Amino acid sequence: MIQRAIILVFLVLLTTNAQDYNFKTNASTLKGELTKEDVFESDFGRFDAYELQMEEGDLLVIKLKSSFFPLLTVVAPSNEYKVAFPSESKPEVILKQEIDESGLWQIYIAGDSTDVGTHSLQLFYVSHDSRVLPKKSNYCSLAQFFLSHATTGFDYFKDNYFDKIDGNWQIKLGSQNLLIKGTVSTKSDISKLTLLLENDDELFQKVSLQLKNCFQKRWNIRESENKLEISEIEGLRKIFLVKEKSSLKLEIHTK
Fold first, then answer.
1. Taking the CB of residue 11, how many other CB atoms lie within 10 A of it?
2. Plot region of 176 (φ>0 → left; ψ -120 to 50 → alpha; else → beta)
3. pLDDT (tens digit, 9 = 90+) per residue, 160-197?
4. For the sheet containing 238-243, what is the strand order?
5. What are the phi and psi torsion angles at 135 (to 5°)?
6. What are the backbone dihedrals phi and psi of residue 60, each rounded to the nearest 5 degrees, phi first?
7. What's the whole-model pTM score?
8. What count of other Cβ atoms lies within 10 Å of the Cβ of residue 169?
9. What is the separation of C-alpha 150 from the centre of its chain, rounded to a whole number of angstroms?
10. Domains in the chain, CATH or no CATH each
11. What is the 3-state secondary structure (H, E, C) of the chain?
12. Binning pLDDT at 50, 70 and 90, where does residue 13 land?
């Protein structure tokens, strides 16, 4: 029986509420160390442990790096568990966990009796509401949905959740006819989401009105004849609605 205290992790979630949706994402890193003073369990090893509160339908992706070859174990509230091992070449583990139970999930980083050293646990979390664009969305909930992903640099739509590389990625997501296509672009520390909409004067006015009604508190709004800019007062996220001769674009920028 494992007796060591477990650290309860509170993910700092920036929530954007639209209608009845609760859009949340998080990317964080937890650093720790195994020492000779840590408890060693003969049937488990020397370990560090964390707990996270999650809901059914959420997604958690974990990347573990350490100075020793670790064992990574994720335990559900029902005590069902999944174990991941590093390759023989480097002490690194990546585990993708679909959350199928609501409650406290436990994460264990374990080594054998001789293992000591530092470890770094990267967590990438997406709530169930933030995984698929909700049905019957309007442009308010559309913008709120993608804003939740701006807090993690839109990594959910990229090929890799953790490697920060420059490039462009097409969004593969149901749109309910709200947009033609979407692209995520990353360069240095700046990420941008571009949604191409039908090029129509009436649609520009419709989207502009919905966005202004949606983002009134904690946002600055500037507008001109063919452009709407909405900037976070305490933050780095910005929304642009731009009408050009050949296109109507909704963009979300973040650093």
1. 16
2. left
3. 888 778 899 998 766 568 889 999 999 988 899 999 99
4. 167-170, 181-187, 190-197, 248-254, 238-243, 227-232, 219-223
5. -65, 150
6. -130, 125
7. 0.85
8. 16
9. 8
10. 7-128 (2.60.120.380), 132-254 (no CATH)
11. CCCCCCEEECCCCCCEEECCEEECEEEEEEEEEECCCCCEECCCEEEEEEEEEECCCCEEEEEEEECCCCEEEEECCCCCEEEECCCCCCCEEEEEEECCCCEEEEEEEEECCCCCEEEEEEEEEECHHHCCCCCCCCHHHHHHHHHHHHCCCCHHHCCCCCCCCCEEEECCCCCCCCCCEEEEEEECCEEEEEEEECCCHHHHHHHHHHHHHHCCCCEEEEECCCEEEEEECCCCCEEEEEECCCCEEEEEEEC
12. very low
Sign of CA pseudo-dihedral 153, 157, 193, 188: positive
Query: How far is residue 88's CA from residue 35's CA, in Å, rounded to a whole number?
Result: 23
Length in residues, the chain: 255
Structure confidence at residue 17 (pLDDT): 47
Query: CB-based burial of residue 22 (10 Å sphere; 0-12 exposed, 13-18 middle, 19+ buried)?
Result: middle
